[in-house]
Structure formats: C-alpha cells, structure tokens
Amino acid sequence: MLRRIAALRPPPSPRAATYSSKSTSIPQKQQRVRDHAFDGIMEVQKRVRRFHALHSLLLYAAAPTAGSRGGGSGAVSVPFTHLGALARRQLRLAPLDAGRFLLRHAHAFHLFLHPVHRMLHARLTPRAAAALRAEAEAVAAALPSASIIRLRKLLLLAPPRRRLRLEHIHLLRRDLGLPDDFAESVIQSNPSLFRLTPDGFVEFLPVPTDPPDLTGAAVERARERHYREHRAPGSGEEDARFAFPIRFPPGFKIGKYFRIAVWKWQRLPYASPYADVSGHDLRSLEAQRRMEKRAVAAVHELLSLTVEKRTTLERLALFREALGVPKKIKEFLLKYQGIFYISTRGNQGKLHTVFLREAYYKGELLEPNEIHEARRKLEELLMISPQKANLDRMFTSMGRGWDELGGGRRGGAVLRDEFLGNGGGQKKHADTHGADSGEDSSVESLYID
C-alpha cells in the first residue's frame, strides 16, 4: 500500500531541489577554510606573546630594585623562583612551563647563577633587549606624523560624534603603533587635535591644516591604483567603482552561482566608512545590503590603519557599534573570507586574529614598515632553535640551578633530560665542537654587555 502511495506522488521538481544552490546571494553562514600561511604567522606570535608576558613579569618583579641596578631592562635580573611563582599565579602556567620556555629561547633569556646570592637568576640577553629598543625607537620615530594620523582616522571612523573610549584605544595601541603613554605623548601633547573628556572619551578636533585625503579610505586608493595599472580596453568603470580586492583561501569552493553573487556584491554601491549615515532609512532590503557593505569597508579601513594589518577579534568587537558591524561579528567576517581571514591559532582556539588578506602574500606583509621590521627581529630571535644554544656549558657551574629551574629535584631532572639528554643518549648541540676547542660559545658571547 505504501509503495502505491509513493508511486502516485509527483517527482520532486529539479528547480525546487536545487533552489538553494542557485541562489545568487552570498550565503549568510559559511564554513571557515584554513589558510596555513596565516596560521603559521600566529604560531610565531604565540612565542612573541609569551615572551612579552614573561618580560613584563620580569620588570614587575625587579621594579623595587631596578633603579639600583641600572642598565635598562636588558640588565635587570630577578631570581627565577620569584619569576616562576609570578608566572604560575598571573599567567596560570604549569610548574615547568616557565623554565621550559626560558630554556627553549636561550638567545632571548639568560639564566645564570648569581655571584653573590648564589641563586638562579634570569634576565634578557643583549640581543633581546636590542630588539625591544629597536621597536621602541621605531614607534618613537613614527610618533610625530604617522601615529597621529592613524589615531585621527580611527576617531573619524566613529561618526557622528567622532569619539571613542580611551580604554578601547589603549587595548589597540600596539596594533596602531602607539606608545604605551600615548594618552600623554599623543593626546594631551596635541590639544588642538584631540580632546580628552572627563568621562574617558577621546574626541576628534578638526583643524584647517588637515590633509584633504584624511577621510579617504585605503580600499579606494588601492582600487584607483589597480584600475589605472590594469585597465583593459572596453572594461567599464562600473565593475571596479565599488569593488574590493578578493582572494579566497586555498581549497575554498567557488560555484557558478556563488561567483555571480560575488559579482553582484562587488557592483553594489555603499557609503564611505567615514560618512555619517545615522539618519539613513534602513527599512528597505537594498539599504540594508548597502549598510552591510559599508560595515565591510569600515572593518577593512580599521585593519588598514594597523601596523601589521591585523588585530584580534576581541579588540575589533570593542569598535563594533562605531563601525556599524552586526553583533555576530565572527559570522559576519566569515561571510567575506575573500577579504578577511580569521585564525584561531595561538591560544587553544580561544584567540581569534583577523587578517586583511590583500595586505599579505604567502605569509609576508606586502608593504612592511619600520615598526614591523623591528618586531621581525624579535620574532627571528625567538625562532632560533634551542640546539644552537650551548646549554651544557651554560649550566656547567650551576650546581643546584636545574632544581631551582624545575621547582624541585624531580622537575629539574625532567628539564635536564629534556634539553641536555640523559646519560644513555645525550643530545648533540651545534657548539659542542667549539666547547672542546676552548672557544667561547656564540650564545654565551651574547651575554657580555
């Protein structure tokens, strides 16, 4: 009986069965496709964040006595027992993680037995201190012009009042290339350009000397440059007038109708991210689509203002209302994977970093700046293999230093076997031959100021 009823039913219409696949609108929800070039950048940044966290703890632990030791942050040393306790309490690191990180990055941190206290101490190597100084000098060099323009353009992205919370800008200061004391060195030092309100907001103050292209978006300049260089005979300006540079990740499936939807979206007009659209009527579907494209342009512009064309999703969410971005910001950005990329590498999936795709090629920034180049020096230092550090010679006269490093005899034995090997099979290091010939280790020479 059931077979007869099924036979009487009309076959499903092929148009109805494939209706969703033939839709010429960009799907609201898309699966994220990984791009290993951007994920590789975040694997390096994981070490950089851990380095800065331990360096901040080192300065915090040495703060009461830093003035008496002198020599800058590179010469400050603290007992490792104190540093390890702070790392476990404030950074929530496992008992052996702090010591393991310092040993794996022996070119950045120097562990030595204090000649007076006879305790294991830790400090930065001269190369690591020089890398931090180079970044600070690059930030100071960009302060008079570039940093001020970035901050003013950031405030212009918050119409109509052109103001943002100081605490939100403070969390974004490193991405914008601003110094830690930017509230004094940038805002209060330029009262004709910025105004700090009593309730904690930073306001934009217009001046007659503002350049005419201050409200010009980066995508507009890139679009105009690309159109002039690659204009083909017979190509219309309508296709490139509101288009964004799009490059989908490897493995992203682009169907026929999805390609048509992207082509329609590229031709869709939108208002500038610097324009005040607070009074626009958004009841029509066409107006909502244009506002959504304007939100894409606003996120694109904020990422363009950053030094390395990236920031975390959590910091970007702080400016969501000012940029006009929907509440579900992650799903919103995943909808435009050809423009942005979200990497979850670096903190067990808890950290989300948003990249501007067009600014990178094979994991390299296309237009590097001095601040980025200074940060690259620290990244290269942290990526040096620990086998190139002669750890055996470093701990020759330490005595119980391994036990202090591991928080006890058992932990010290674990770290000693992990980095130097046990008696059955000792690890080979690059400087073993140099130790036998009586030459100084290339790493130990870095500790001499």
TrEMBL record:
One function term, GO molecular function aspect: RNA binding
InterPro entries assigned to the protein according to its UniProt record, in alphabetical order: PORR_domain, PORR_fam
Span of domain PORR: 33-383
Domain of life: Eukaryota
Region: Disordered, residue numbers: 1-32, 423-449
Polar residues bias (residue ranges): 18-30
Classification via PANTHER family: PROTEIN ROOT PRIMORDIUM DEFECTIVE 1, PROTEIN WHAT'S THIS FACTOR 1 HOMOLOG, CHLOROPLASTIC
Protein name (Swiss-Prot/TrEMBL): PORR domain-containing protein
